[in-house]
Amino acid sequence: MNSSPPSRPSNAASLRLRLSPLTIGLLLGLVGVTIFGITLPVTRLAVLELDPGFVTFARALIAAMLAAIYLVAVRAALPPRDTWYPLAVFGLCVTIGYPLLMGIAMRHAPASHGGVILAVQPLLTALAGMRIAGERPSPAFWGCSLAGTGAAVAYALLSSAGALELHWADLLLAGAAAAGCYGYAMGGHLTARMPGSHVISWAVVMMSPVILALMLANGLPRDPGRVSWAAWAALVFVGMFPMYLGFFAWNRGLAMGGIAKVGQMQLVQPFITLAAASALLGERIGWMEIGFSVVVVGLVALGSRMRVAR
């Protein structure tokens, strides 16, 4: 009797077998952070011509339309009833809290400034992971996290030559960071119950009636024809990628590698924001930015090796 040779795994399957769940989680987290890091400068392009409230609600509705198509295409079952409340909290944080506060702040502060202020996000995500998922980072992990956050803050002070002052736009950015990180942790926790793509999809679909009502109450642009194509393109981009598709990678990464550890990938987000701000808004990037990027990435790598009890 002829026996066929065993089939060999594909290159992608073989790679997955060699990589640990933590490594895959960190790589997926990096994909999500890269998408999120572009958000500030692209949002600034949009809100310079469109009302921040309209941008917030329109981007959420774009994501909700994509999510509805996706859920129908994959024939997704309704989420369990006990996940409805955390889904609503997650949706409220990522569709209204984070983008609205960030959008208003981006009308009054440069994208590079916002990127530095949001450097506190990894620490806030770790704190949210403790609250939501019961994670217990080790003291060494906290040391790496605080050192990375301190490096980002030191960069802010050095690059601004003492001009970094606290004003109401900074408070809005801090509120955006808090809302975003709590939402990130909630989404990562929910991904243990359902696929990450379903988490973000059901969240934006559930929030869509509220978003639509808020958009109508806030008002539509009075003269859409005078808005440049760049502003409209920026709106479509933030609706498709940071608001929706980026969470496919981010939520899955948090579930595989842990909220605290993968959340540290956000330490590189300020520098992604700076690079995008340079490309889109013409801001200058020098050796100091590159040097601090190397330091922060090294601290992320070191922190990912520290123990986090789950």
Write a brief structural summary.
The protein is mostly helical and 310 residues long. It has one domain (21-309). The chain has helices at 11-18, 21-37, 39-47, 52-73, 84-106, 111-117, 121-133, 139-160, 168-190, 196-218, 229-257, 259-263, 269-281, 287-303, and strands spanning 136-137, 308-309.
Structure description:
This protein is mostly helical and 310 residues long. The chain has one domain. 75% of the residues lie in helices and 1% in strands. It has 14 helices and two strands; from the N terminus they run αααααααβαααααααβ. It has helices spanning 11-18, 21-37, 39-47, 52-73, 84-106, 111-117, 121-133, 139-160, 168-190, 196-218, 229-257, 259-263, 269-281, 287-303; strands spanning 136-137, 308-309. It has a two-stranded antiparallel sheet with strand order 1-2. Helix 8 (139-160) packs antiparallel against helix 14.
